[in-house]
């Protein structure tokens, strides 16, 4: 049966998720600090071994063995510097030297120092009486001691620790356990960037939302990663993309997002078995979070309809994704390796008459019928903006001229031109709540009718 101390250590391990060895090392470090406080000497490198079952303590002074000459030269140099300082102080007191100038702060080298042959400069070790012991003195404790070895010199434990030493030990334990817990959380999450995770809203701090991810881990949802239509109230549960894991003075930083394009990919992978298996591939995603998204898909198997698979029977699959994104409309676009076809598809729900490409400037001029012009641009330029991001082309929308007439040379409406790197703008409530219809783009050569979520899917 475990002793009360050993059982308490195991309880800490279970509560904090820390390894037993880490807790034992923490206690030994705390006891070493307490020993130095009450019984230690200035030049002792105190280490402690603790037995949780018996509560027995063994203290040691751990030293590295160095040559006698190394110690002698170091002590001589220390004495010379001390004598020099005393002489300078005396001369300044007599007015024979100016006051001590304030030295500039040391500047760390930006590049490693190199020898003439190109090898890195290795600084000579400096003597530290707390860590080093001359060979002759070391052999008085261990006759077979050799230079370079580490020896342990047993230290007595005169009695119980005092109140101040106990307080020091307590502070060390709390600090070390906190650090161990933070390291455990960091190691658990590092390498999981890009995963879809479920979290519960914990609280809001200014513009940042803290998300409880379980196992004592909190995610950070920054303002730019929040969907405007979400209500981040304590207890609400959402799905997030983990896009960053780092360390800060406050502990591990787990950065989560609701606006990342990969959130749409992961949600479709959850809801659509064909996407999860690779039969349907999501090629690109463009979003204005909370308002609208365009997703291009392609089938890797001949007998699978990518559009129908993503929509699902009566739109059930895509509606589940839309609901998770707070009503964000989703246009499912058939991908094409032909830029003209892909750009025309991306302009859905507008029907495109023709696409002209300037490949040198990666600019596409999209011609539409006059009655399709407003639809092609979209409210506030949203449709053409998303199409540009989805395809990676700059897109300029123009009204088609009568047959034989050249296209207009310039665009007066700034909303009719969009760049793939254009920033997302904040939309009005009307723009965010104009329906949740899922659309399939028309081909530039054979226009098709939009497909709504209520249409049956051939491969769902």
Brief rundown of the structure:
This protein is 33% helix and 24% strand.
Provide key terms for this protein.
13 helices; elongated; alpha+beta; GMP Synthetase, Chain A, domain 3; disordered C terminus; 33% helix; OB fold (Dihydrolipoamide Acetyltransferase, E2P); five-stranded mixed beta barrel; 460 residues
Please outline the helices and strands.
Elements: H1 4-16, H2 20-38, E1 46-51, E2 56-66, H3 68-93, E3 132-134, H4 135-141, E4 150-155, H5 163-189, E5 196-205, E6 208-214, E7 217-221, E8 237-248, E9 251-257, H6 261-271, H7 273-277, E10 280-288, E11 292-299, H8 306-311, H9 316-324, E12 329-334, H10 339-346, E13 352-358, E14 363-368, H11 373-377, H12 382-391, E15 394-399, E16 417-418, H13 429-432
Parallel strand pairs: 2-3, 7-9, 11-12, 14-15
Antiparallel strand pairs: 1-2, 2-4, 5-6, 5-8, 6-7, 8-9, 10-11, 13-14, 15-16
How would you explain this protein's 3D organization?
- Helix 6 (261-271) packs antiparallel against helix 9.
- Mean pLDDT is 82; it is low at 423-460.
- The chain has a five-stranded mixed β-barrel with strand order 5-6-7-9-8.
- Strand 2 (56-66), helix 3 and strand 3 form a beta-alpha-beta unit.
- By secondary structure, the protein is of the alpha+beta class.
- The protein is elongated and about 105 Å long.
- Helices cover 33% and strands 24% of the residues.
